[in-house]
Fold:
Amino acid sequence: MVRVMASGVFDIIHTGHISYLQQARALGDELVAVVACDDTVRRSKHEPVTPEGMRLKIVACLKPVDAAILGKVGDMLDTVAEVAPDIIVLGFDQGFDEGDLARRLAERGMGHIKVTRAAESAEDLAATRRIIQRIRDLEGRE
Structure:
């Protein structure tokens, strides 16, 4: 059995998320989605629109996802060790460097894990920040 791990904020679910999760699921037999906890989102991106519990519940219900867990605060490799994936799929716009992540995995004894990146979705609004900007633009017209 090939276990695949995909992680993200998953704030305001959109077609980009669905594409990412479908691509990840196609690479193995089981997809574990890791939903970033609120503290991680605040430190790395923005104030989450929806709280971690809600995001976790939504992601767990998505068809490509076999299991969803909440990411840990701190070193993401602790979460990787817990999930024990064969493949990690990065989102097309995630700020990770595949080579650097592979090196860090090897240093922690997890060098057997393959790291790959999903392709970008062709949808215009396939990013949370684009959806938020679209809402702001529409509010400005009222």
